Amino acid sequence: MLTLRENIVHTETDYGTALLDERSGQYWMLNPTGTLVLRVLLDGGSAAEAADSVVRSYDVDAATADRDVQSLLDGLHTAGLVATGTASRPDTAS
């Protein structure tokens, strides 16, 4: 499950989602696809479920959706927007 850090607030807009770090004043914008992924993850869904939602909602193949979800997760982690220990990798079979 993905969790935003406690000082990060988010709101959906007509153009996607705005994320604001209340401590630094920095903000980030997610497009509608990123908004869909974030919503699934914050609602307790896995990265694989988020990628499936992207495939169902947009004209994109599963491999591209998986890469895009991973890229968003990596970016959220790198920017320090998510709490330590939250979801970071799509479900993979060994």
List keywords for this structure.
94 residues, alpha+beta, Arc Repressor Mutant, subunit A, 3-stranded antiparallel beta sheet, 3 helices
What do these coordinates show?
The protein is built from three helices and three strands, in the order βββααα. It is α+β, with helices and mostly antiparallel strands. The chain has a three-stranded antiparallel β-sheet with strand order 1-2-3. The protein is globular, with a radius of gyration of 13 Å. Residues 88-94 have low confidence and may be disordered.
Can you describe this structure in just a few lines?
The chain has 94 residues and is α+β, with helices and mostly antiparallel strands.
**In one word, what is the shape?**
globular
How large is the share of residues in beta strands? 15-25%
Q: Measure the end-to-end span.
A: 21 Å
Kindly report the spatial arrangement of strands forming the biggest sheet: 1-2-3
CATH C-level: Mainly Alpha
Number of strands: 3
User: Could you name the CATH topology?
Assistant: Arc Repressor Mutant, subunit A
Summarize the biggest pleated sheet.
3 strands, antiparallel
CATH architecture: Orthogonal Bundle
* Count of the separate structural domains: 1
